[in-house]
Design a protein that fits this description.
Length: about 190
């Protein structure tokens, strides 16, 4: 694994972002030199997340727990991301707090935000493999597309599965099931 040294300005930005208290319903993320603040999700977003989460919950390994809006941190590369859904080891509860080392996450699931799609489609596709998150499931309700990224190495994902709402997504280990997407709703907002 490549060792990254975090520049002082990134360390300061990450430290500053962690002191911020966003308004109710807002999330904060850090990517490089940017602090990203996002508004709360729509009801279509929440419904789609429920459809996905119920299926993952039915196939989750017993040593993993679901978590929504948990900060996944990679301070060594200046990243703090907050996926819509992730599965992390149950043992992280012993650490306390709301921040989990990103490399402990089994997957990051994002429903594309209509107000800031570039954050999910570009920023997180760039950041999640750098953070050593093995799977990134990206659901875009604007156009009904689904992408599953896997096999991170050297700062990028080396496998990519593309489909549309209605397709079955082949989710690999540690979950090992086909995600049904017929109940996902489009949200062209």
């Amino acid at each position: 694994m490549t060792e990254y040294r975090l520049p002082d300005r990134h360390a300061q930005l990450l430290e500053y972002a962690q002191t911020l208290t966003p308004p109710s319903g807002w999330k904060i993320e850090v990517s490089g030199d940017e602090i990203i603040m996002m508004a709360g999700p729509s009801v279509v977003h929440q419904r789609n997340l429920l459809v996905v989460r119920e299926q993952f919950d039915a196939h989750r390994p017993t040593d993993l727990m679901p978590s929504e809006n948990t900060d996944l941190a990679s301070p060594n590369i200046g990243k703090l991301r907050n996926p819509d859904l992730t599965y992390i080891p149950i043992t992280v509860v012993e650490r306390g707090g709301n921040e989990v080392p990103a490399e402990l996450a089994a997957i990051a699931v994002e429903i594309v935000s209509p107000s800031n799609p570039e954050n999910d489609l570009i920023g997180k596709v760039r950041d999640y493999p750098l953070m050593n998150i093995p799977l990134y499931l990206l659901i875009d309700p604007r156009d009904g597309e689904i992408t599953l990224f896997s096999d991170p190495a050297g700062g990028s994902y080396h496998r990519r599965w593309n489909g549309r709402f209605g397709d079955r997504v082949p989710v690999p280990a540690p979950f090992g099931f086909d995600l049904a997407t017929t109940e996902l709703l489009r949200d062209p907002a």
